[in-house]
Amino acid sequence: MAVQTPAAPPVPLPAPARARHPRRPRLTHWIFAGPATVLFAVFFAYPLGASFYQSFTSTENGRTTWVGLSQYARMLHDPSFLDSMVNTGLILVVQVPLMIGLALVLAVLLNQSWLRFRGTWRAVYFLPAVTTLVAYAVVFQVLLKTDGGLVNQTATALGLSPIDWLNDPTWARVALIGSMTWRWAGYNAVILLAGLQSIGREQHEAAAIDGAGTLTTYTKVILPQLRPVVLFCVITSTIGTLQLFDENYTLTKGGPDDATLTPVLYLYKVGFQQMDFGYAAAIAWVVVAVIAVISFLQFRFFGRERKR
Amino acid sequence: MTGLRLDPARRRRSVPARSGSVPARSGSDPARRRTGPARFRFDPARTGRRLLGVLLLAGAVLSLIPFLWMAIASTHRTGDLFHSPPPFLPGGELLRNLARLQDTVGFGRVMANSLGIAVVHTVLSALLSAMCGYGLAKFRFRGRGLLLGAILATMMIPLQVLLVPLFQMMASLGWVNTYQAVIIPFLANSFGILLMRQGFLDFPDELLESARIDGAGELRTFYGIVLPCVRPQLGALVIFTFMTQWNSFIWPLLMLNTEDKYTVPVALNTLTGLTHVDYSGLMLGSLLATLPLLVVFLLFQRQFVAGLLGGALKG
Lengths: 308, 315
Description:
- By secondary structure, chain A is an all-alpha fold.
- Chain A has 13 helices and two strands, in the order ααββααααααααααα.
- In chain A, β1 and β2 form a beta hairpin.
- The longest helix of chain A is centred in the N-terminal third of the chain and has 32 residues.
- The interface between A and B is large, with 106 and 110 residues.
């Protein structure tokens, strides 16, 4: 009895405590995460599965039949598909390093403290990336017009012979690579510049005190730290190249002679002009596989700090 | 994101004394310059800078020429564009080109379509991304890890894989050549969700608790308290999404097949396919297509760059 008296004023702790910390309804999180999840399921997961299934089927006269791996086997003997892969490989080997190199040089220049109006310079170099994708391809089409285009007029004025940019297989590739570089170099430079700026000024000073010249400072101190950002640029550019469609569709429609055909442009033609859905799906999955493999390799070889 | 200085000018203002790369200071030092015959002395640092400056200028000119040409060409007649020498100054054909562009593809309607689609898509998508990001950042629930993993995985899958089944889906829904076919399928945006989640992770839980104690409902807490705190990320996401949707080409090209529904890129593409290409109209169209993005870029440069950097950081 006596023991109970101290606790006599019934402190109503539990009840108000519960009132003050109401248990969250169990499903609140789905109010927030639910809508996006549903959209992902309907417009992503389902079509993804459907496309995987489709890649093993063939549709003829409205009847869909299971054909196993034969759509994939078809690609090996399809000159247009092989051309599109070669073109993509060429762009990957030429355009991506050219553009990233240019972007790096630009970023380093724009990061120089003696440079005045840096904000303006940066904006000017970023401007091409602001152009609407199709619009810039259209502008290049006009600039590169064989008779009377601004580029050929300049060439003639300089005493060079005009070039049939968009109708010659080699020059069409050059034109594509050039216009892509125009559009994306500044974009990558701005990303790299932000990376450079996150590396403190102290590091430059420390390297200088240790007797390193500007070039050595950059190659030995700054660039190794920039590696993750460079990797990001390389991987996104690689993926962008493997998915290339807007530019070459507008500029050359993949021609001449498939010289600028890319896998995505090809799958567009196969799927939506020839209505060969199974084959288009198979091509799409090969693109996915190639992207996965190349990204993995790039990550593997350039992603890690090299051990000394 | 906060660790990055996106505006170099701001830092320069705050640390004026330290500007100047260390080994190359002598060139700009006025005391040195005044010393006697050194006026004509070869100063490698100074010359190097001049050279780099010229290089930078040349690159900038190359960057700008297509823009200038686009602007100039849209004020001339097609016939005059390819004469030698080409026109260097604006002409007086702008309005006539505009009227013709309106006649050929109904460009006013096309611009309105693009703007409407992009705005609706952006608002809905940003909202969904913010909500999902918040759910993933601030609630623990069964399936959260799985959802997060799935969202990460979707970033690896290119859109092209989905084209055929999505097209068939739209066809069976009867959505072909409708606005919702362009707006809805890509609303859930994994990049946006991850970006917003990152922003919400730093939001203090105590603040959420106190809002709940004060009796605010979950949704009111979210819209009234949490969302305003991630305004920078939200701004970056909105700009990024708007730009992506404005540029979007392959999907609208597949979905929209009458002029009254066209978006700007699809209309431009149609114009290039005509037998007699109206080049000055095309250039004007390209200019108009670029203008909204240009305005957004010039007004919100910081958020613009932050949006595209979202993926580069925290990786």
